[in-house]
Amino acid sequence: MLIASPCVVALTWTLTDAQNHPIDQLDVPTEFMFGGHDLLAGVEDAIAGQTAGFETHIQIEPENAFGDYRSELVCFEPRTIFPGEIEVGMAFEGLPPGHQSQGMPADTIYLVSEIYPEHVVLDGNHPLAGMALRVALKVVSVRPATDEEAEAGTLGVAAVSVLKSVPQAPGSDHLH
Prior knowledge:
Blueprint: E1 7-17, E2 22-34, H1 41-47, E3 55-60, E4 74-78, E5 91-93, E6 109-115, E7 119-123, E8 133-144, H2 147-152, E9 160-161, E10 174-175
Antiparallel strand pairs: 1-2, 1-8, 3-8, 4-7, 5-6, 6-7, 9-10
């Protein structure tokens, strides 16, 4: 079967940054919706029209991966508005109540990047923003998407599981 939208592909891959530092390793074939929301556009472009057994190495530039790093998504908030057990890597959906930053997007996930006695630095960029990514991937299988999968546009699988070399929220090893 040729890979075309909508279908489900099972992939294995090795994902590194541009300096070949490991970010993610998928050794067990994992299914993703092709033509939905599960895969980066660069991955979809590389496998479109291919079949099971296809292997390739690609580089995806930041604008086609997790976007350019935007310094305007970094803010400083008073330490007093955070819980006492705050840690670097914790994630907040939107800014916490009592925030002082103006004009920051409310629908953004903010990660704690630094903690000081008087303030906390929050970063609304994806941890892989601004990074070119190298992907060595193999298409293990291809199948038609069910009607439910096609309608949902996702299999609910995080596209990238970040290894310990990249900061992440406690209790989670997936970035969306």
